[in-house]
Specification:
The chain has three helices and five strands; from the N terminus they run H-E-E-E-E-H-E-H. It has 94 residues and is an alpha+beta fold. The protein has a five-stranded antiparallel sheet. Strand 1 (20-23) and strand 2 (28-36) form a beta hairpin.
Length: 94
Amino acid sequence: MSNVSIETLEKLKDSMVGRRYKHFKGRVYVVTDIAVHTESDEIMVIYKCFADPLVTWCRPLTMFTSDVDREKYPNVKQKRRFEPLSKAQEDNTI
């Protein structure tokens, strides 16, 4: 059994699954699930590109919510790698 609490997973799923996030390079993604890595117990975010959902992506939660690397991408305006869209922004991506 995982060392990640059920409460933690429930909170993350409630707040993230189904929401759309903008990647700092501009594409919009939808979070489809939260998972736990079998070896490390690291929490993973499962997501798909909103416009092209053929590929399913997976990334550690810490990386998904991390700040953009300003040394590598100095001109990016977005603070986080993925930022949740507002309700108005989500309505415009339908």
